Task: structure prediction
Amino acid sequence: MKKKKIILIIGGGIAAYKSLDLIRLLKKRECEIKVILTASGKKFVTPLSISALSQNKVYQDIFDSDREAEMDHISLSRWCDIILFCPITANSMAKLATGRADDLASTLVLASNKQVVLAPAMNVRMWLHKSTQNNIKKLLDFGYLTVGPSTGEMACGEYGEGKMSSPEQIYEFLNNYFSERDIVKNKNLKALVTAGPTKEYIDPVRFITNNSSGKQGYEIANSLAKFGVETTLISGPSTLQKPENVNIVKVETADQMYRETKKLLPVDIAVCSAAISDFKPEKYETKKIKKNTLNLNLKRNIDILEFLSKHNSQRPKLVVGFAAETNDILKFATEKKNIKYCDWIVANDISDSEIGFNSEYNAVSIIDGNRVEKIEKNLKSYIANKIAKKIINNFTQ
Result:
């Protein structure tokens, strides 16, 4: 925790007073803390007490005329190592779940590229309400983490789940989070991820391709980088934004992707999520072919997954393949895993438009040896985080 930079957002509710003890605890561990105090949080703790403990200015207003040029919601989110919303109320959770950005706290979270941790605190009935449970599920889908709530007696006199975790519990959660990241960083793990489709040109205007957006691969690269893995993404044609802290190499054809993959070896981890065209034209015509003269002969493309799995001298320690199937998903995926000699295969059903190409959602089965781990339909960012976590566990346990 030493020298870690933490943004602490203090929400409303009687549990806000615990945030003062948390600041004191973090400062003892030599953390640097900057605090955003919400309008409702200000009803329970004062800016003066926070400033005295954190030894920093307290941020409150998104429209701060003295700091307009610095755009606090951007500069603060880039400054920190992690964002902790503690306590977060049911109202603030609903706001974040719907993407509202009407104050400094919600705008900062929405604009952030850092891990967000939520420490909920509310009445047991509010916590168990279906709307709150739907909102927390959505926030977890976004990739946010939660610490608590715990079960106990509340300020209102009722007993149940909804009590904010203690400052000591929150500190341990943060400490474990950074410890895990440090373990990964100390191992100096390197990963390559392939993503997106390829274009196999027939002539200057025609090509063979598929409908892959590359989103799942981009999200996996982003998740690995967040865990502290040095990650390079080799991307086929895609309009997606480059993930934060990820090196990216843009290619078009399978041959180009193959050459760039070889250049990156050796790596510890290879995730082959690209939807590479299985075939390419035997001959590329330098001039446009007239439509009444087209006679197309195809040949097989290079198989990058098989190359990596069987590359004895520089084989990655973990090779993960993808199997995009339309029927008999597990059967064909298992066959592919055995033929290609990869360590894991991630199978998904592209016949379902809700989880197939260009969808924001996915549902996968990870085949690891004789084990099959299913991840039900969820946002691709959530799926990516689960896959990345499994990869990290493979190297740290």
